[in-house]
Amino acid sequence: MNRILAISLLATGIFAAPALAEDSSEQVIARTKATAERAAADPIELLRLVDKEVTNHPDYACEVVKAAILGTDCDDAIVGYVVETAVRAAPEHMRLIAQCAIATAPDSLLRVQEVMARLEPGAGTAARSSKSAKGKGLEVKPAAIAPPDPLDVPIIVVPWVPPVINPPPSTRTDFRRPFVPEDQDRGPTLGSGPIPAPN
Fold first, then answer.
1. Angle (CA) 135 137 140, round 5°
2. What does the buried/exposed string (b/e) look like for 165-194 if buried means 16 or more CB atoms within 10 Å of the residue's CB?
3. Which terms are listed as keywords in the entry (predicted)?
4. Contact yes or no for 113/84 (Cβ under 8 A)
C-alpha cells in the first residue's frame, strides 16, 4: 500500500513539475505590465523584457505586446520599438504581433506599418511572398503589359446640346382692358384705361 502511494506521489510530482515550471499567460502579462509602468524612465528595460518574454513564450507574443504598449500610454515611437523587438524575437508571429499592436494603439498604425515594411521588405509587392501558398520551385512571372498604341486616340464626343427654340414673334398685347364709353356710368375700374375728365 505504501509502495503504491509512493509511486503515485512520485508520478504526480514528475508529471506536475513541467506544469508548475511553465509560466502562465497571466504571470507573463503581470511581469510585462510591471516593467511597462517603470519604462517611462528607462524604455530600454521594457524592450529587454519584451525580447525575453517573447523569446521564452512566443505563444503569448500578442499579450506581451499589448501589455507593453498599454503600460507606455501608447507612445508611437515606443510602440514601433516594441513591435520591432517582438518581431525580431518571434518572426513566425510577425503578422499577429503587428495586428495586436494596431488593435491596442490604432493611432500608431503608420509607425507599425513602417516597422513591418523595414523588417519584411517587398511584402505585398510581389506575386509570391514568403507566406505564399504556391510551390517553392514555381517561378511566378509578372504579366507582360503592352505599350500603348499611339494611333489609339480617344474619340471626342461633343455633349448633346438641346435645340434652340425661338419664341414666336411678339404681337402687341395689351393686358389692360380698353376704355369703352358705356362703362362711364359705372365709374372707373382698375385696368379700364385712363380716367375721364369730369364734365
1. 75
2. eeeeeeeeeeeeeeeeeeeeeeeeeeebee
3. Signal
4. no
Cα 126 vs. chain centroid, distance in angstroms?
Answer: 22
Domain ranges for the chain, please list them. Answer: 23-119
Which residue in this structure is represented by grid cell 500610454? Answer: 73
Handedness of CA 43, 45, 48, 49 (dihedral sign): negative
Residue 16 has pLDDT above 50, yes or no: no
- Say whether pTM exceeds 0.70: no
The pLDDT value recorded for residue 72 is 76
DSSP single-letter state for residue 144 = P
Cα separation, 43 vs 36, in Å, equals: 8
Which segments of 75-189 does DSSP mark as H helices, in order?
76-89, 94-104, 109-119
